[in-house]
Design a protein that fits this description.
Blueprint lengths: L2 H12 L6 H6 L9 E2 L4 E5 L3 E8 L7 E2 L3 H8 L3 E4 L6 H12 L13 H13 L12 H15 L8 H12 L2 E4 L3 H9 L3 H13 L4 H13 L3 H14 L1 H22 L4 E8 L9 H7 L5 E2 L3
Parallel strand pairs: 1-4, 3-7, 5-6, 5-7
Antiparallel strand pairs: 2-3, 2-8
Helix pairs in contact: 1-6, 1-9, 1-11, 4-8, 6-9, 10-11, 11-12, 12-13
Length: about 300
């Protein structure tokens, strides 16, 4: 399969940037699914008076997965603070920002930036997703790629209402827990917008070329997450990013380094904190745990 596609899937699943206009307007509700047991991976960093749990999430999930119980629920309930990549982005605020940053008013139309084959793949993908073929013509390639990807995920039954962050945020509100964010939705959007155009075009071309293969790949990602298989999940999510060093640095290692620094600072304060970030960030080379180790902090896998 086209390796760069996995980078698109990984970023769309493991970033909070899931509120594009296409997804919001076009994607149907996720179909009901039979309950399935999931035991996703959980780590903990501890010292004498501070405990920080690290939980890897899927922002978009099919309905019917049972995971917020057992060890995960116990760790969450013991925490007074929930930390996620972004706190409840408000669509009324986020969409105007996306539109301002995503629209390219000076350059050529989107499809003119693509190779002839990619143009054909793009038109086919838009037709399959029942999106107007000219919908993203004024958009930057990164924005078109993510809107297409998220729309496809939601058509396949992956939705934010069942996503891990939605469940955790609702529970934190109900329990009166403090909520904090590592980045915020605006910063996540700006990370994409700052990518070189050649990288953006590669993401878009890979997205539309790989649509026929995506169900099988997503099923494997979800199965790995559900059984707590961080090694396989890392391979599926991060392999292509590792083969594109510029993108891997932007989307994974730079952010992991910043988050490890945040955790190190937070360890200087007493208390128990539940940190939930995209699962791709907690596995593989350059993971958050790797950066914590370099700071003399050990993240230990929680068995439950």
């Amino acid at each position: 399969m086209n390796r760069i596609y996995r980078a698109v899937a990984a970023t769309a699943l493991s970033l909070g940037l899931l509120f594009g206009p296409a997804a919001a307007a076009q994607a149907p509700s996720a179909p009901a699914a039979a309950p399935r047991r999931a035991n996703p991976a959980l780590w903990v960093v501890k010292d004498r008076d501070t405990t920080i749990y690290l939980f890897g999430t899927f922002h978009l999930l099919p309905s019917g997965y049972s995971w917020f119980d057992g060890g995960v629920k116990k760790a969450f309930d013991s925490s007074s603070e929930l930390v996620t990549e972004a706190i409840d982005p408000d669509a009324k605020t986020l969409q105007p920002l996306m539109m301002r940053l995503a629209i390219n008013r000076d350059g050529p139309p989107l499809t003119q930036k693509l190779s002839p084959k990619a143009q054909a793949d793009y038109r086919k993908a838009m037709a399959e997703l029942e999106l107007p073929v000219d919908m993203f013509e004024p958009f930057d390639p990164w924005a078109a790629a993510l809107n297409i990807q998220v729309t496809l995920f939601q058509k396949m039954g992956f939705g934010p209402d069942s996503g891990a962050e939605t469940i955790l945020n609702d529970a934190a509100k109900a329990g009166g827990k403090t909520r904090k964010e590592l980045e915020g939705a605006e910063l996540q959007i700006r990370i994409f917008d700052a990518m070189p155009e050649r990288t953006q075009i590669a993401l878009l071309e890979s997205t539309v070329q790989s649509i026929p293969e995506q169900r099988a790949v997503l099923d494997r990602m979800l199965a790995s997450w559900a059984r707590g298989d961080a090694k396989t999940l890392s391979s599926l999510m991060n392999e292509s990013l590792e083969e594109t060093p510029e993108l891997y640095k932007i989307m994974v290692t730079d952010r992991n380094a910043r988050w490890a620094q945040w955790i190190e600072r937070r360890m200087q304060q007493p208390g128990t904190v539940f940190v939930a970030v995209g699962a791709a960030h907690l596995a593989g080379t350059g993971s958050v745990q790797d950066y914590l180790k370099a700071r003399k902090l050990r993240a230990k896998r929680v068995k439950y």
